[in-house]
Write a structure and sequence with these properties.
Blueprint lengths: L5 H26 L9 H29 L4 H21 L8 H26 L1
Helix pairs in contact: 1-2, 1-3, 2-3, 2-4, 3-4
Length: 129
């Protein structure tokens, strides 16, 4: 069986990861911090944005790959991949470090985090059932 769909979304996630990684590097230069966040809240938030993508994207793409290898329909795989990309793109935009953040950010974070958790459950269910 060939794997033709998952690599598309893995590549898009990799580009997003590269962008977030470059942003962390630029923030490190701006604040003169080589390791950790040096107490700079904007740098800490940038690190968290990258870290959150790193923590979730790998498992989501792995689930998608297993789904593809086990014969999940192409349409379902594309919907799953689009959801991964959209949710992981929204999350760094709405991530905040102050509970006084605007409501749209709180709602966006709820959607992005909740949607990601739902994708984990749906991916696991598609494989196990």
């Amino acid at each position: 069986m060939t794997v033709a769909i998952t690599p598309i979304y893995a590549a898009i996630v990799a580009l997003l990861m590269a962008g977030l990684s470059m942003h962390v590097g630029m923030m490190r230069g701006r604040y003169g911090v080589a390791l950790g966040d040096g107490g700079a809240r904007p740098l800490a938030l940038s690190i968290r944005r990258f870290g959150n993508l790193s923590e979730y994207a790998a498992m989501l793409v792995l689930l998608m790959l297993v789904m593809e290898l086990t014969g999940t329909a192409a349409r379902t795989l594309h919907l799953y991949g689009i959801a991964i990309v959209l949710l992981r793109l929204i999350h760094p935009i709405v991530l905040f470090d102050d509970m006084a953040a605007p409501l749209w950010r709180k709602a966006g974070r709820f959607v992005a985090a909740g949607g990601t958790a739902l994708l984990l459950v749906l991916g696991a269910a598609a494989i196990l059932l």
